[in-house]
What does this fold into?
Amino acid sequence: MNPPPRSLSPRRVLRGGPVVARCSLAVALSLGVGACGSSDPAPPSPDASVADVPAADAPAAAVAIAFAHTVGGAPLALGTTTPYTNAAGNSFGVTRLSYFVSGVTVRMRDGRSLTAPGARYLDAAMPATLRFALPGAAPVGELASITFVMGLPPDLNISGAFTSSPESLMEWPEMMGGGYHHMKFEGRYINRAGEPFNFMAHSGGLNRADYSFAVSLDASGRSITASGASFTVRMDVAEWFTGPNTWDLNDYFNATHRGIMGDAAAQASLRENGASVFSLAAP
Amino acid sequence: MSARGVRWVALLAAALSLTAACAQEAPSNARELIDLRVPRSFPRMIVPEDNPTTRQGVALGRQLYYDRRLDPHGARACADCHLQNRGFSNPMVRGVIPHVNLAWSYYFLWDGHFEGGLEEAMRMEVEDFFGTDVNRLREPDLEEMFLAAFGTREITTRRAAYALAQFQRTMISQDSRFDRYVDGDASAINESERRGMQIFYSERGECFHCHATRLFTDNRFHNIGLDRQIAGTGRGAITRDPQDDGRFKTPTLRNVERTGPYMHDDRFATLEQVVDFYSEGLVYSDTIDSLMPNVSGGGMRLAPQERADLVAFLRTLTDETFLNNPDLGPPRR
It folds into this structure.
């Protein structure tokens, strides 16, 4: 797989000076969107930032969110073989999985919430992208849910918004509507002829339609303690190929239908299947 | 004299003594920072804090780029293998990577043999490739340029590399007919080229995922299906990971009309041959990239007119402004 940028070569380690700080996506977005403190003493509303809650009333802790990838409950292993089987009976393997999630939010039973504003780039080949802390201090207490948008909602799916790799490499062609891919999910499967055949389940804003979707995971029974908390969201990649719509990969990826980026029906079908893709890992 | 007065005298004396000691140095504020004018649609350029781009540094880097004194044998300069009118590549030298938009690279050479920033890559060029002997550079004209660029006449391979990196950062190709089209000039490309662009930016052609962004490269490694036997080749020769066998760095397509022959081993002489390969020449191997379309069918399977359109589009990436920019050519004496 492609290693993350600026890893060190086993043959030669090059020397480098300090690099001018490149505004990280998280920093840039956190500067631009929400999460600002407020001195408003009004009682918290369901949409309120925790910063709206007086500290004396709500002890604070750190919250980390991790994303993990599975296939039928087993950890996903990226590779060029085809060890998995989908609902249609296709043997398949996954070589690349990268996607955006937006507005990851921890919602408490008492209505308070804490949001990681903006978008996060996640890449199964880049472990450092798969775990992040919610900015600011989270309230101690019992959770209700963890929510986010799979992909980029229209207000974030703007061409040119990401100026650095790897986020910028998610660009979606202007002539297909511009913006960015929500997801690149690729691999190969064994087709009807018994041959390995590539599949590219890429989703994005085809012709400016919004194929992102909201995810809400029941987190009842989970809590944030004074020492903080960590929650793991799982994506079962086999679920992209089932749900309301069973995908036989032969139908979507073949000699004449190479991919689904230009296929509005397939984009909608994949979004519908997304309803069962995410779950919250057991504590 | 008061105690305060004594302190001022002491400070003045110290300053005078420093001035005398540094009589060979030039004030750093004499160096003029350059606005590189990176297009807004380009990815963010990373410039190290310890090597800002200055007019004097770029002038020195340009001098060194064309100066055979960089070679201890005086036989060659960077520019001997990187010809401006060939997009800073050279058809006579196997596997030459064009020097264009390298400021955005973090892997260098086809197999990513060198990783890091431009400063590190240029240091490799100076110290390892050329094996530069700084004594050959210790001549009055260069010493003056080092003084202007770095505030000292002391010549080191590090400073030479840093100057070359500064010059490389000015080698930005951004004014092709494609750029003008994207920036709003609908007349910049013709109908055939527009059809070729449609293929390029579709999964039918499947070019844009790797030849990505306005740089036309993702700076990553891919097995595009050139060979069945891939063991130990490409990126795999560096990482020793069989999953990397057969993978080579995506080359930029900017000025691709001028940068042939093509592929890491120069196997294709023309763009037509390249498009023919992608259309019907792909072969399967274990690490072939999942982005490669219809491998078992040979590839894109484009009709002759479609192939011609795609080649026509690739020619819109020729940037005559860049190829003829006098500021990138040999320094005037």
Remarks:
- Confidence is low (pLDDT under 50) at residues 1-58 of chain A.
